[in-house]
Amino acid sequence: MNLSGKPNPQSSLQPPAQERRQGVFETLPHGSPLEQGDKPVLRLQVYLAHAGVASRRSSEAIILAGRVRVNGKTVTALGEKVDPSRDRVLLDGRLLTLEKRRFYLALHKPPGYICSSFDPQKRPLALDLLPKDIGERLFSVGRLDFRSSGLIIFTNDGDFTAHVSHPSAEIEKEYLVEASGSIPDEALEAFSKGIEVEGIFYKALEVKRTSWRSVRIVLIEGKNREIRRVFSHFHLHPEKLCRIRIGPVLLGDLAEGFFRPLTERELKELGKGLRYGNSD
Fold first, then answer.
1. How far, in Å, CA of 227 to CA of 216, rounded?
2. What residues have CB less than 8 Å from 112, skipping those under 6 apart?
3. Distances from the Cα of 95 to the Cα of 64, 66, 107, angstroms
4. Annotated catalytic sites, by residue?
5. Beta bridge partners of 115
6. What values do phi and psi take at 186, rounded to 5?
7. For the chain, which has fewer Cβ within 10 Å, the N-terminal or C-terminal residue?
8. How far apart are CA 186 and CA 191, in angstroms?
9. ∠274-35-94 over CA atoms, to 5°?
10. How is residue 65 annotated by DSSP?
11. Beta strand ranges found along the chain (DSSP E)
12. Residues 44 and 76: beta-carbon distance below 8 Å
């Protein structure tokens, strides 16, 4: 990628998704809510979460906003329960169905791709690097900006996304950063101790110099564009910014544009304290 933020020409020449797959991309460690079958009636917010709309908490806000209809009736109360085998649930007029598969994919996002599901500027989407035959709606766990590269997780599990993304989970994110010039010690010391930039407080969990112009940074909260904002404060330009770890999940030797499923161990570590399955 060049310094203008435009993707390299080869970014558009990624191999087909079926060739970028490393191992079986579908993981079903917890099964489908309906397949487990012991609680067919679900609270409406749980139904929305299992339909891939959002996390349960975010689904509650969607219900309260009056965007959901059950059997033709607008529902604005959180106590509503639905029977997936009989009831028709619509969100903004779109019929919802329960997703029967859960996907947890680790992708090595190249620079020049965005993590949104749509871009009015028609820039390449990281989602385009995943197989089209998944069917379920996937969304990213956290973000990497257009110019950054590295590890990003995609899933259709809203509760998992909300849990991993929330600062209270205290999941470490590790980055390798290479600046266009020498990085002064005062910048690294300030980031380690904590610094306020434009009214926002930033503090890295760990900062370690790897060369005169490169550094390894570990964040917990990971505010929007945190590293770039701190570097900019010291008149530094991150020429390369790559996320190499999210909690127990390592980027490793996963090539740019390729993906793999998360392992059972990675899922258990990331989802500590999270309830899976069809709990209502």
1. 11
2. 1, 5, 6, 7, 8, 11, 123, 124, 146, 147
3. 18, 15, 30
4. 145
5. none
6. -65, -30
7. C
8. 9
9. 85
10. T
11. 42-43, 68-70, 73-75, 81-82, 89-91, 94-95, 104-109, 139-141, 149-155, 173-179, 195-197, 200-202, 206-211, 214-219, 238-246, 249-250, 259-261
12. no
Cα–Cα distances (Å) from 121 to 10, 125, 128, in that order, read 19, 11, 15
* Alpha-carbon distance values, 32 to 169, 261, 274 (Å): 25, 17, 16
pLDDT in tens, 211-233: 999 999 999 987 889 999 999 99
Regions in the chain scoring below 70 on pLDDT: 1-39, 273-280
Q: Which of 258, 13, 251, 24 is nearest to 134 (CA)?
A: 24
Please give the domain boundaries of the chain with CATH numbers for all domains. Answer: 34-95 (3.10.290.10), 101-168+249-270 (3.30.70.580), 172-246 (3.30.70.1560)
* Full-model pTM: 0.75
Please give the Cα distance from 146 to 266 (Å, whole number): 26
**pLDDT at res. 64:** 95
d(CA 15, CA 128): 11
Question: pLDDT tens for residues 8-41?
Answer: 333 334 555 545 554 334 443 333 333 444 457 8
Give the three-state DSSP class for 128. helix
Average pLDDT, the chain: 83
Q: Are 179 and 139 in contact (CB under 8 A)?
A: no
Structural tokens at position 32: 């489908």
User: What CA–CA distances, in Å, run from 39 to 36, 180, 218?
Assistant: 8, 57, 41
